[in-house]
Amino acid sequence: MKKILLLGSGELGKEFVISAKRLGCYVVACDSYAGAPAMQVADESCVFSMLDEAPLRAAIAQHKPDLIVPEIEAIRTEVLLEVEKEGFEVIPSARAANLTMNRDRIRDVAVGLGVRTAKFNYAESADELLAQANAIGFPVVIKPVMSSSGKGQSVAKTAADIQASWDYACAGMRGDRKKVIVEEFINFEFEITLLTIRQRKGPTLFCEPIGHVQERGDYQYSWQPQPMLPSYLKVAQDMADKVTADLGGAGLFGVEFFVTKDEVIFSELSPRPHDTGMVTMISQNLSEFDLHARAILGLPIANIVCTEGASAVVLATQDGSNPSYTGVAEALSEPDVDVRIFGKPTTRPYRRMAVALAKNANALARARAAAAKISVVV
Fold this sequence. Notes:
The protein is of the alpha+beta class. 31% of the residues lie in helices and 29% in strands. It folds into 3 domains: 3-90, 3-Layer(aba) Sandwich (Rossmann fold); 119-184, ATP-grasp fold, A domain (Dna Ligase, domain 1, 2-Layer Sandwich); 190-377, 2-Layer Sandwich (D-amino Acid Aminotransferase, Chain A, domain 1). The strands form 5 sheets. Strands 10, 11, 12, 13, 14, 15, 16, 19 and 21 form a 9-stranded antiparallel beta sheet that branches. The chain has a 5-stranded parallel beta sheet with strand order 3-2-1-4-5, sandwiched between helices. Strands 6-9-7-8 form a 4-stranded antiparallel beta sheet, covered by helices on one side.
């Protein structure tokens, strides 16, 4: 039985714990607040800020895990680099966790490997942001170098938008780096997440591409498979393979791309299951969480079978605690529809609280209709 220390216990962590438990693992779930979703299904839990070096070190020393599995970006990753040298295994690697904690570092890695990215630069003040935006050319996309689920992301159409974009990015930042990435606005046809699985033994595998739509920088619904030219899919796979091979280790990566009429452009990478990949809970025989668990445990992945599927999020509308849900029975009355309520103990406007899933014909329309029937009550 492998002991796993899970760093971050949100809804993605919860599904990973379920997959890992099914394979006989013992899981200690960590997060900054008690009662987080993954804690509800784990064997043990710890509450502390993972940006705080002392309790992070203490948790590793206390539990002596076989595998340290980050689920979020906001971690004092310097600690992971050090404990890896002491013999602990970080998934997929401490270097991957460190580089992908901040958008600037992973973007620099991609450029160094010759991977096509949008034009970009960095800024550490509103004045510097304005200068870089002028150099790239409006409109520009502005994101904190460290955040999650699109928090703090905006589009500045003119110089007049820069101060508001800077303030919004700062409000959405995680960690202690007051720095943003500013990049050219790509007029894409669609964007995809390419789930990429590096195995301990065996070739790198790819799931069918996942299409998705974002609002306020956060995903709202996703579908699989996203139709695209085979030649473009091969380009995306080659880029994903190149970047994940450089990062090393085993596990599932969520690699995002913009797809235009003329080319495929690398956007971002997460060395863990991806929120848009929640669709795989209904569209694949093995969900992204099952695949992540098998990959890090060195277990075989015989095949990945995909059928038409879609996911749509259910959001809270106000601050509150101990929420309840209406409309779940109505949503589940439709065939080939499922609902996953995450179990978050508190709400805030636009917080993701559940997801509706649908498969087979017209999956996207049915997933969105199911999500629309569900309300979060506080």
